[in-house]
Amino acid sequence: MRYSLASVLLNAVSGQSRWSPAWRSPEPAAHYDVVIVGGGGHGLATAHYLAKHHNVGRIAVLEKGYVGSGNVGRNTTIIRSNYLLPGNTAFYELSLKLWEGLEQDINFNAMVSQRGVLNLCHTDGQRDAYVRRGNAMRLNGVDAELLDADQVRAFVPFFNFDNARFPIKGGLLQKRGGTVRHDAVAWGYARAADRRGVDIIQHCEVTGLRIDKGVVTGVETTKGFIGAGKVALAGAGHSSRLAAMAGMRLPIESHVLQAFVSEALKPMIDTVVTFGAGHFYVSQSDKGGLVFGGDIDGYNSYAQRGNLPVVEDVMESAMALWPALGRVRLLRSWGGVMDMSMDGSPIIDKMPVDNLYLNAGWCYGGFKATPGSGFCFAHLIATDQPHAVADRLRLDRFAHGALIDEKGVGAQPNLH
Ligand SMILES: Cc1cc2nc3c(=O)[nH]c(=O)nc-3n(C[C@H](O)[C@H](O)[C@H](O)COP(=O)(O)OP(=O)(O)OC[C@H]3O[C@@H](n4cnc5c(N)ncnc54)[C@H](O)[C@@H]3O)c2cc1C
Q: Which ligand 1 atom minimizes the distance to the CA of 204?
């Protein structure tokens, strides 16, 4: 059923009895033309754009848990395209443009809210860096505004401006940035892909890759062997384990990242703010909870829960920026497994095994990339050529030294 005002009214007068499941739950077929491993945002978006734009035959998405159980349902929902370096700027801007038309494209309310993303600066050097990044963005046709301290104060008046440990000197604002309801993105893409005939198979873990003379021919799963013309890996935090099935070691470490939600409050902050003197960022959900997070936990892990030192660190940063938060109660927290690449930028590329493709290395920032990633990964799978805006997101950049290191911090996941 197509979602529309008419379908809402029809169900309102019929006891909500006419809705059909948002997607089917088929048994896996013996063979697909394309098998996508991982039913997170990226896997599902890839399936949607493959089915919509490319004539590749039958497609399946295999998910070891349920749709939305991974990072796509665990992130802090921020979207933006405020990048400095060639390789990232055009890619993330494509993604933001796709967010802007997403709800019409997939006929699903994903609550796309372009409420702005403001990066605060606290030193002159940091402001210089923001000027440079803002200029790069504008040269690439991306919106960016530099705010001075008074403009920041008028925009977000409740922070500590008068007696702060780290005085606020200004900020870089991207007004088109904002938030999107994360699990609605997973459900919306799943439903849209299903409507185009994609089989979404939940609770189906890929346990091995079958490779014959350097060509992948299918996947071993907990539901048996599934043959495949092409296999696309979109396992996010589990990418290293998937690549190991093909005998490959990726330039990726898996780390836990935590998020926090406060009790529901009246509207306090109508934008997204990042603190420039510590690792802390905050927005407010439509239910009223403050949504915030900070740094990764600092040790390798595949657990979807974090540790207390980072909780303390995030709260300290929060208090330094916004002392009134000391009176707010924390409602809940959780963790997700991040695929931290060694230069902080992602990989969308073919692998050394024929017909095997990789989408990984999303670090803290893969949610905002979801539409762009799916669009470009679908292009690569269908045409065997990288999409023009993703042609630097190659695996061999780590061998050739063509890194895309936004912060210039090298292979240190906690600094990206
Ligand atoms: C706390 C937190 C906050 C974040 N905040 C932001 C933010 O504000 N903005 C932003 O842009 N990004 C953010 N991110 C990052 C973002 O969520 C991720 O980069 C992105 O969601 C990863 O892509 P995905 O949605 O495809 O991942 P996932 O949803 O994790 O999808 C991968 C899927 O692969 C499945 N899988 C793995 N192995 C197998 C297997 N062997 N067989 C079958 N299936 C398998 C997993 O079960 C999982 O469902 C945040 C992440 C976390 C954890």
A: 43
271 in ligand 1 pocket by Cβ < 6 Å?
no
**pLDDT, tens digit, for every residue of 52-69?**
999 999 999 999 999 999
How far is ligand 1, taken at its centre, from the CA of residue 390, in Å? 19
Q: Residues near 366 by Cβ (< 8 Å), separated by ≥ 6?
A: 41, 42, 71, 75, 236, 339, 346, 373
Residues 6+ apart with CB under 8 A from 391: none
Query: How far is CA 301 from its chain centroid?
Result: 19
Measured in Å, residue 149 CA sits from the centre of ligand 1 at 36
**Rg, the chain, Cα only:** 21
Task: Verify whether ligand 1 is closer than 6 Å to residue 41 (CB atom).
Answer: yes
From the CB of 387, is ligand 1 less than 6 Å away? no
Determine if ligand 1 sits within 6 Å of the CB of residue 78.
yes
Q: Quote the pTM value.
A: 0.97
Domains of the chain: 26-81+83-108+182-251+343-415 (3.50.50.60), 117-177+253-341 (3.30.9.10)
Q: Classify residue 291 as left (phi > 0), alpha (psi -120 to 50) or beta.
A: beta
Phi, psi of 184 (to 5 degrees): -65, -30
From 64, 75, 291, give the residue whose CB has the most ligand 1 atoms within 8 Å, as the site to mutate: 75
- pLDDT per position as a tens digit, 312-360: 999 999 999 999 999 999 999 999 999 999 999 999 999 999 999 999 9
